[in-house]
């Protein structure tokens, strides 16, 4: 019997095009051509629509991966899933995490004693601009999520702790394309603002995950609920979007008794925007056991944290007014604040934190999803 | 013998000109014409140079206070110190805290069992634009700090836990004025950027406090050390500046056995930008006793937190690179991050958090000052 | 017979609350309690949603007007229309223009030799948040436009050269109000972005004017065409919106043979975003006659210019790509660019220029409306 | 005798890494390996310190040029000067202009009838961070300017109409490097703000040009005059800076009777920030003859415009206050306004416009340099 052994290797990046960390891992044999399944990271820059940091990082990482795999850059997407989230304001260190999966031979009858990390990935069918932020995108993400779960060897949605999705957003050009074919698009706003195409794309992707995992019944879904009915959401979907994409890409992380990984994943949801305990709960869910605050030893077992930092739709936190919804730079500030919430708990800045949008189907109203990967002890 | 009884009353504000909370306190007799000594708050808006929220709040609060005291707005500054810090990005609720001081009769020989909150204030001599950010401003703030300590009845610098200072900054008009008189000014940059006049003004004020409290020997001070020698700093100075000011204003908070206040103040310094434990240490310094995390009961005794959120001068936190120094909106983001650090510990958003400047003489390099006021138990 | 004599008096403002210029005009008798019909101006600040400059200006001007008229600030709106547009980036001098209308006795049979400036104004019925950006707002603006034309003594739409409208926008609070009553709102985006509530409000107001003037047939209007069908537009509507408004306010400017004003108004439309000739055509329309460039003498007769600066919906100007649609600060930049286009023609910075939104029903696709008021010669 | 034949070929770019236009020119033989002397352009993005558009463009263009020349990217700087100015806000089309110089045989005694375009370039000695914005940088730019003039065959400064310079700025890393060696740097502010390192670098470069051309006597130059004595300036220097540079690069454009180019260059200076006539004067200086406005035929002969858009140091334009000095986004807005001023005259958006800094030694106080290249008629 073949069992997975999954690793997560975090490389800080010195510039958007810095592939030194990856190359070093490759040189050390920690990343092999047959084991690399995903690159997940945060790229520096503003994360705004006119930020070229993420685009450049995507190009540079794709070229590096192509050279590493000995294939052409256009072929990379078929073998390695890229999830790059733009914008590292504040205390989020630009970094790339390589996800590797090795298949090891194990005796047929020896399931692991406890559940350990598995990973699966899948690409979706192409998503034309008229589907962005709508049922077309939802359904294609749901389908790809099913494929990625199967690839991970997961069948029970309860074992899924994180689904990262990258989907196409809209651009001036793709809107023009859609409308020239007589189609409408969900929004003419290219930002991640409350009615922005980026926000719609992210949220359709989240609902696609929720549909796949049964968090939301398919019957309750329609174009009209996206960014309107906040009672529909996923607790494990982290999604982002980019204008340059044509397909969706899905990476599922979960735990399985059939895994031989040293790692385990867990997740939780913050109860509101300032809830540090929600972050600690994610560490606990992944297997760290502590009262109050995690110790240095606990934190030394922490491998990585993935968190969303969606701005709440309400202008109140615990009864008091905040101005975040009205702040001019709210997209940047909201993302930065999530970075601080996580860093102040983990004691490190190399956390994956994406967000800044106002409200989302990623997590319940006001709350945010946090997933943690820890090295199992013993 | 007369002893002080100091109260701190926090009123969230719905708009920059909202004085309803103050009026309600006045109607309830909690603020009296003879007890109001200071208004300290955070005003909404960007906090940037073209933000009119703080200016409007200043005008509205000054008019309210003038009506309340039955004097003209121009006379208000002689009786009540205003410290308004602009910019509430993220999770900082716009609010005003009224500081009241009542003098109560106590038997001559009964010093309190423990030290409790006292407050003192003083205005400085006028500071012309050519003194902003330089020794002239440093010396005048030091002198006013001495006066404010005397007004508080404090003699030992160890008993001083917070010195809030508001000083004149520069404006296009005041620079023109200075240069027309053949004087130079410290900077032509009107922002709070690393070479901005706002940052120089804040830092000269901080060094003035440090000089007054003996944190920095006078001999080590000169125009040249401001924003250059970061080994010189105060651990209790929180300073801000505004172009419309002509004088400095100083409020000193400390503890004294001669106080009959129900409140106690303490302070601490964070070790770096993501150090939540530093915030908890400020609560402990003020008298909350807890291991790990404060309980709800502990937090119910917390009256208010004052914190700086100065951006570190280094691009590294705990060994990893961050981009905060280069972020376009760093001034906003830096301030917002401090708000999150404090709110995630206090569980509330009505905290006074000012900052955003890169590096400061307010606190040691990389660290930030946090002061907390708690209601003493028993 | 009574005939109008309309004047337009432009006062630069030194701060958002500066009413000195108006007071001086009042002291000189140029503004009288019975002649003041409107205050139209540009207020400093960012013009963004968290800019308090405009709100403060509104409060200060309303208080001044109330004192001037001897009524309460709440009553001011019934007598004087306020159209304050926020944001003076670049080369737009913050200013307020007082519009006065005197009724002079003239012999019954002496119509003027040529048409001169008349003005009329009207308030609308209240517009609840659910009507913002939709037919409700369109119809109420159309109705108010008819009333304002009647007030101006205008019947032929051809004689109308400028209709300034200020309507309610949305706020976090008003959205909550609408949704608590089971209503939907047009957008949850509070900005003037492409799907922002501010843009929808402005555009519904423009279509209301277009409907009133017959520029667009009523039958072609519906909720669905707002910010979607750009073939529907007005050539004379300049609209803005603010969250604090509850009613719409309309001021109509036109020319009439029955006027005894010294002023005349004209308007034109730019053919694209860089079309300085469009600005010059507005001057010509108002009665300046020049080839090529206006002379100093021509410009000395120019009293005021009102211009929109809507960002084109296309990313091409005269065949070349621009990035304006994607620029992070496009709202500010777009408005600033209009200010430059006008100032570079008029040779002065005290022009009323509002805009920054992407695309609008104010003017044809890509083009912007410019109206000019000149002092008639002879 | 060998004579120069210089061409200027403007390629709009679709992304920061778009080299298609250059490749097409190479394929057509319009750019040859032995004729390419400089690439001068505007790159998209914000132009701010965290904008990666310019860096990416630099990398991509350098790689293309290396492939084209058959050398390594590190060798490119020795053969081709790159002047890339970041930030295309508003109506500035991202583009690259290839400057080619061919040496053609001409009879020894046949000087041209009129002066035509020549070009020369030179690199400077390396400029360590401690020299940035100071005499070290000034002198090295002056020296390189002399070399570039010699390379162009120009001896009379009157024949020089444009000197483009790119010099090293400062970065967090280079400041650290300098200070670790016991050196000071001119500023800790990495922006192009009034005390920003970027502004100091640009201005030292401008004074270097002024020194070389005799516009400013060397004796009047010192570290202290940079960004302080605005009476010292160049009328032909356009400078920019980037943290990644180690050397200065200079390209001189002028006219010479020994040239066989079809092109001619001229320049002028605007009298203030809204002076469109200054732009027209640059067209006239280059050889277009028109009264009032240039005709379509005139403009068809215009090849390219290079303009600065430095924000005036005063808050007044023609007697009226503007808020540009205080605008939060002034750097972007100021640059964008220059783009509009030029585009509204040239009727096209592919103009090179750099700027946004407050005040500069590039041009006289309040005015900006404009250079124009036209195709000579007949």
Gyration radius of chain A, rounded: 19 Å
Question: Which sheet architecture does the biggest sheet of chain A show?
Answer: 4 strands, mixed
Largest interface: A-B, 43 and 43 residues
Tally of helical segments of chain A: 9
The arrangement of helices and strands of chain A along the chain is: EHEHHEEEHEHHEEEHHEEEHEE
Overall outline of chain A? globular
Total number of strands of chain A: 14
The level-1 CATH class of the largest domain in chain A: Alpha Beta
Q: What is the fourth-level CATH superfamily of the largest domain in chain A?
A: Cyanuric acid hydrolase/Barbiturase, RU B
In which order are the strands of the major sheet of chain A placed? 1-4-2-3
Class by helix and strand content of chain A? alpha+beta
Distance between the terminal alpha carbons of chain A, to the nearest Å? 24 Å
From the structure provided, what is the oligomeric state, counting identical versus distinct chains? homotetramer
The CATH topology of the largest domain in chain A comes to 60s Ribosomal Protein L30, Chain: A
Strand content of chain A: 25-35%
